């Protein structure tokens, strides 16, 4: 995908039923989709939730790379979820659906965000919303369920469900990081970078 003329990794457009694609305009900012190289996406991350970590960790790393690149360019996705990550025939991920995308410091538009992946409260900004939603994705992939259910967190700082199934050590460490980010409503000093080292460590363990 091109954002202000810059190609981002692991990002693709969503094709409409009539075969057309359109950009999304928001004030002076324009997100313009273009075809991504590589295999055509065939499914999404939902089917991998709760499965062996070796199946979803490479895709999780790809999503992190896409979001970090997006943030570097001054944008946030604002609707990160398993359904919005497509997997190609070679299992490479593609982040889709930029309808909710916002400049990184702009307020989150809750009316078009997914409740289960959105921090509670009235003052969420786009960067924190992406961090929170990525933590939800980590939690869902590792445990097979959403940390706050389909309706999302009811109050800022709420801890996720602790009745999760046991998981292997590397994934458990990722859940711990995700839980800290969730309890902070996504407002953490290091942003998405807080996940990077432990995702790489987990990959070394499982692959």
Ends distance: 29 Å
Please give the number of β-strands: 9
Can you tell me the CATH class?
A: Mainly Alpha
Largest sheet: spatial strand order:
2-1-4-3
Radius of gyration, CA atoms, in whole angstroms: 16 Å
Share of helix among residues?
25-40%
Topology order in helix (H) and strand (E) letters:
EEEEEHEEEEHHH
List the uncertain runs: 1-7, 12-35
Number of domains: 1
Q: Biggest β-sheet: count, sense, barrel? A: 4 strands, antiparallel
Q: Any idea what the CATH architecture is?
A: Orthogonal Bundle
The CATH superfamily label reads Transferase(Phosphotransferase) domain 1
Q: Oligomeric form of this entry?
A: single chain
Mean pLDDT: 80
Q: Characterize the overall form.
A: globular
Strand percent estimate: 5-15%
Q: What is the count of DSSP helices, taking H or I runs of 4+ residues?
A: 4
* Category by helix and strand content: alpha+beta
According to CATH, what is the topology? Transferase(Phosphotransferase), domain 1
């Amino acid at each position: 995908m091109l954002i202000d003329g810059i190609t981002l990794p692991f990002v693709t457009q969503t094709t409409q039923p009539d075969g057309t694609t359109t950009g999304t305009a928001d004030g002076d900012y324009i997100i313009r989709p273009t075809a991504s190289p590589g295999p055509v996406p065939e499914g999404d991350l939902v089917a991998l939730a709760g499965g062996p970590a070796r199946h979803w960790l490479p895709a999780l790393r790809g999503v992190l790379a896409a979001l970090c690149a997006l943030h570097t360019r001054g944008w946030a996705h604002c609707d990160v979820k398993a359904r919005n990550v497509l997997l190609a025939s070679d299992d490479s991920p593609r982040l889709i659906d930029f309808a909710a995308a916002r400049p990184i410091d702009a307020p989150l538009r809750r009316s078009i965000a997914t409740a289960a992946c959105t921090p509670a409260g009235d003052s969420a900004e786009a960067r924190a919303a992406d961090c929170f939603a990525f933590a939800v994705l980590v939690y869902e992939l590792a445990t097979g369920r959403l940390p706050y259910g389909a309706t999302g967190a009811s109050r800022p700082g709420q801890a996720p469900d602790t009745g999760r199934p046991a998981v292997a050590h590397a994934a458990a460490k990722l859940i711990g990081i995700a839980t800290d980010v969730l309890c902070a409503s996504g407002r953490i000093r290091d942003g998405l970078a807080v996940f990077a080292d432990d995702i790489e460590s987990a990959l070394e363990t499982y692959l």
